[in-house]
Design brief:
heterodimer; A: 537 residues; alpha/beta; 7-stranded beta/alpha barrel; immunoglobulin/albumin-binding domain-like; 2 domains; five-stranded parallel sheet; four-stranded mixed sheet; 20 helices; B: 225 residues; alpha+beta; Immunoglobulin-like; four-stranded antiparallel sheet; three-stranded antiparallel sheet; 35% helix; elongated
Chain lengths: 537, 225
């Protein structure tokens, strides 16, 4: 029997960036890039391991906006076109780089895109949700949910019904798409605040994750630190992040992804090559963008112009070494902890899924090497939170500390001098949504459509991504525009509904434009008092 | 003879005019005939619009407008981190009028906007809101939000927005929700509480002489499982 457990957790999320009005939105490319570089390579790895019957257990959280986009026909079609274009470019590149230092890398991309096409189109008929739910059915993945639009819940708690609507919408969509109710949740940005646990338990969610200090600073002090889950007063389990294993993968300086042999993200042929040659593969307005074909390695701390050509064999050799190193370190960590704890220690290692493949190109490869090594290891066993809670039902009860995994560990990233203005609007919109839902216990026809759309606009405005982007300073105008757009749509819908002049054309246009959550129910925002009043009358 | 020349010139001009006018006259006629065909085309367009609404025109793509004031009085407190709070507020016109009715127009202009922070750590939520202690912040006259440095982790607070009249009288306008700052270190409280295990205490009362463990285990199916 293994001496301890490792719970690898990958959190996959993108904001809802579907733009039916035009194919040329740069932001929609976030999805295409993540598909080519992260989701498809990951599925490739998992499918291969499953095919070869290599045992593994992994937790994969898929946010509802991502789930919706993965199953959206318009985006699926657009992605196929995008991929075909990439394949065309890779054929040209194969010829252009022939005999040069970049040829090996060019061939690598050619194969990669072909493989992506085969998995996306042939194996899964364009719908990757099937791929993920299949891996869950086969017992390799445990898929958890997230809040409906990745809303930042700690700053939403002034209106608990708004939090409930985020969770209810998410749980319903998850069940519908994946085929079973989620047992656990990835709290957006790991944002936990006391009282949230009660709401989670209302929706049958049995566990969530926090950053290290969410569990370490719990009151009273947890006996096993982050190496065993704790139960909140509401009976929901909290799993705290292990700092050591996180740092090895996350840190830009000490982490694996910064190694000189790995691929350099910031040298892309979209910027490097002649405009005339590359113009068909960048933005139609001539804006230079990342194509995804990057031929240099990180090399070291040198200027971008001094980066050396990428050598695929070196990189894969390094990924193998790093996988072995990660396993060795976890082994030592577990052996040490197992000696001082009276139960097998649990190491929780959560990462953004998009780190693997998109930022750290060799990430999926590293993961495959690691899983294969662990399969034959006697010290470490891969586990998911549900499995752990079945094995160890009785855990310490204490109160986790309010925390996030953002910079400084609290709410600063989502509440600072740059983005604080959004909350007065978000809170007002949420309160007004309660008011509308309470006003109309059973709406039909256009009124119902307008109410549901108001709910969609509110949820989309609440996405934590906008506050994050405004705070970090890249693509600020897009994030501001999205926040204001959804809020403005909400304000108009609210007025139209309240003063009984619903403009059907406007509702139709919004339903077409922001079509997330087809089965949304505006009654998710009904306050408890209103529900009680109805029960009495 | 002179007249004949003049007549001829006039004729030429008239002919030239007719030649120039003809194409435009023809256009008129063709347009008129095209108009007859228009209705069916329009119908097709209408159908298409219903299935796929036209995206908003360029004019609509400017920064969307959202109101700054909603006409609702509120003071909302949020936690930024263990040391900082944030508050935003809106004093509605009605609220302002109430104040003016009671204290006069001059009092509104002469008084200062202040924020009171009450420490209510350990006090019951349902009790009327009063704190152990409070501190005051003198605000900018036009401020409608503030980052508040307290430096006190693991405490509970609520806020009041009020106005300080020239004679020192404090008039409360708005009261906020209650917030708790998070801990910033490991808890000194070590006592542990563990989940109970169902079934351990279940059979205590059933122990009598002559009952075997097998019987006890058999009695309780849950225990057996």
């Amino acid at each position: 029997m293994a001496k301890g457990y490792l719970a690898l957790v990958l959190h996959a999320h993108l904001p809802y960036v579907r733009h039916p009005e035009s194919e040329n939105f740069l932001e929609e490319r976030w999805l295409y890039e993540a598909l080519t570089e992260t989701y498809l390579p990951m599925i490739d790895v998992f499918d291969r391991l499953a095919w070869e019957q290599v045992p593994f257990r992994l937790t994969f959280s898929i946010s509802p906006p991502l789930l919706t986009m993965l199953s959206d026909p318009l985006l699926q079609d657009r992605y196929v076109r995008h991929l075909e274009k990439l394949m065309e470019l890779s054929y040209k590149e194969e010829a252009r780089t022939y005999g040069g230092p970049f040829h090996q890398a060019a061939l690598l991309y050619k194969e990669k895109f072909q493989r992506a096409y085969e998995i996306f189109v042939t194996r899964y008929q364009r719908n990757l949700v099937q791929a993920f739910s299949r891996l869950q059915r086969l017992g390799y993945l445990e898929i958890t949910t997230c809040a409906a639009t990745h809303g930042f819940l700690p700053l939403m708690m002034t209106n608990k019904q708004a939090v409930r609507a985020q969770l209810e919408t998410a749980v319903n969509l998850h069940e519908q798409q994946i085929g079973s109710k989620p047992k656990g949740i990835w709290l957006p940005e790991c944002g936990y605040v006391p009282g949230l646990d009660e709401i989670l338990s209302e929706y049958g969610l049995k566990f969530f994750f926090t950053d290290s200090h969410g569990v370490l600073y719990a009151d009273h002090r947890p006996r096993f630190g982050v190496f065993a889950p704790i139960y909140t007063p509401a009976g929901v389990a909290a799993f705290g992040r292990d700092t050591e294993s996180s740092k090895q993968v996350w840190s830009a300086d000490e982490g694996y992804p910064g190694d000189g042999d790995y691929r350099e993200f910031y040298r892309d042929i979209g910027y490097d090559l002649d405009y005339e040659y590359i113009k068909d593969y960048i933005h139609p307005d001539g804006i230079r963008i990342h194509t995804g074909l990057k031929y240099h390695r990180i090399t070291g701390r040198v200027d971008l112009s001094e980066k050396q050509p990428y050598q695929p064999e070196w990189a894969s050799h390094k990924a193998d070494i790093h996988a072995a190193n990660f396993m060795f370190d976890r082994e030592k960590q577990i052996e040490y902890l197992a000696d001082i704890m009276e139960r097998p220690p649990l190491i929780v290692a959560p990462y953004d899924a998009e780190l693997f493949g998109h930022w750290w190109f060799e990430g999926p490869m590293w993961l495959e090497f690691f899983i294969r090594k662990v399969a034959t290891n006697n010290t470490i066993e891969l586990i998911t939170p549900s499995d752990y809670l079945k094995l160890h039902q009785h855990n310490q009860m204490t109160r986790p500390c309010q925390s996030t995994w953002g910079n400084a560990g609290y709410n600063e990233v989502w509440l600072n001098e740059k983005n604080h203005w959004i909350y007065r609007h978000l809170h007002m919109a949420a309160d007004r949504m309660n008011e509308l839902a309470d006003l109309f216990p059973t709406a039909e026809g256009n009124l119902r459509r307008a109410l549901n759309q108001a709910g969609r606009e509110l949820l989309l405005a609440q996405s934590s991504d906008w506050a994050f982007i405004i705070s970090t300073g890249t693509m600020v105008s897009y994030a501001q525009k999205r926040t204001k757009e959804h809020l403005a749509n909400f304000v108009r819908l609210y007025d139209d509904i309240k003063y009984c002049h619903i403009d059907e054309a406007f509702v139709s246009q919004l339903e077409w434009q922001n079509n997330i959550f087809p089965d949304i129910d505006y009654r998710s925002w009904r306050t408890r008092e209103a529900n009680q009043a109805r029960a009495i009358s | 003879m002179d007249h004949v020349w003049l007549w001829l010139l006039g004729l030429v001009i008239i002919i030239a005019l007719i030649v120039f006018m003809l194409p435009s006259l023809r256009k008129h006629t063709t347009l008129a005939s095209k108009k007859v065909e228009l209705p069916p085309k329009r119908q097709v367009e209408e159908m298409a619009e219903e299935i796929c609404p036209v995206p908003p025109s360029k004019g609509q793509q400017e920064e969307p407008f959202i109101p700054h004031h909603y006409g609702v009085s509120r003071l909302v407190a949020l936690v930024k981190d263990p040391y900082w709070l944030y508050a935003y507020w809106e004093v509605s016109l009605d609220k302002q009028k109430d104040f003016i009715r009671q204290y006069g127009q001059a009092a509104w202009h002469n008084s200062r906007q202040i924020l009171r922070i009450y420490d209510v750590t350990g006090l019951d939520d349902r009790r009327p809101l009063t704190g152990h202690s409070f501190q005051e912040i003198y605000l900018d006259p036009f401020a409608d939000n503030w980052f508040i440095h307290l430096g006190q982790p693991e405490r509970s607070f609520f806020l009041e927005l009020g106005r300080l009249l020239p004679d020192g009288t404090y008039v409360n306008l708005l009261t906020s929700n209650r917030v708790c700052t998070p801990r910033d270190t490991i808890s000194p409280r070590m006592e542990e509480q563990w989940m109970g295990i169902d079934g351990i205490y279940r059979n205590l009362g059933n122990l009598r002489y002559g009952t075997s463990s097998l019987m006890l285990a058999g009695k309780e199916e849950g225990y057996k499982q």
